Amino acid sequence: MHGTTPSRGTILCIEDNEDTLACFPFLFPDHTVEGAITGAAGIEIAHALHVDLYILDYRLPDMTGTEICRAIRAFDSETPVLVYSGNDVEREVLAAGANAFLLKGADPLKLQHLACALTRPPVPADACASRPAISTFGIAAIA
């Protein structure tokens, strides 16, 4: 997504539901959002771009989110991976190298806060004292 605001980074969303995929640029207006509807296409894009966050669905036509996560981790061990799925596969995807999991159907603000917590540079502890933390599946995001 392109606009007048400078991008805060690139988010690659690998999601086979085109309606869900179309929502990501609206959820992350300050980011460049790239999308893929298959795992293979997403992995190809991941090789070609500098990505700041991967958001993966679990069930795709050609592979699972676990398989995609493992493939990404084979060449990129640093970039955060968030699995956003309707399947309760948290333990499986975290064991495969994902940094976080969020069950679809959660408030979109939780997705935004979690993505922000995963992509922003670390904030010194004293900078957070006056702002409340929102707990999102064990990861604190600054409100």
Description of the molecule:
- The chain has 143 residues and is α/β, with parallel strands linked by helices.
- It has one domain: Response regulator (Rossmann fold, 3-Layer(aba) Sandwich), CATH 3.40.50.2300.
- Helices cover 34% and strands 22% of the residues.
- It is built from five helices and seven strands, in the order βαβαβαβαβαββ.
- The chain has a five-stranded parallel beta sheet, with helices on both faces.
- Strand 3, helix 3 and strand 4 form a beta-alpha-beta unit.
Descriptive terms for the model:
single chain, 143 residues, alpha/beta, Rossmann fold, five-stranded parallel beta sheet, two-stranded antiparallel ribbon, 5 helices
As for the number of domains, it is: 1
CATH superfamily: Response regulator
Q: CATH topology, anyone?
A: Rossmann fold
- Low-pLDDT windows of residues: 122-143
Give the overall average pLDDT.
Answer: 83
- Beta-strand percentage range: 15-25%
Structural class: alpha/beta
Give the gist of this structure.
The chain is of the alpha/beta class and 143 residues long. It contains 5 helices and 7 strands. Helix 3 links the parallel strand 3 and strand 4 (81-85).
Write the layout of secondary structure elements.
Blueprint (H helix, E strand, L loop, with lengths): L9 E5 L3 H10 L4 E5 L2 H10 L4 E4 L8 H11 L5 E5 L4 H6 L4 E4 L4 H12 L13 E4 L2 E4 L1
Helix pairs in contact: 2-3
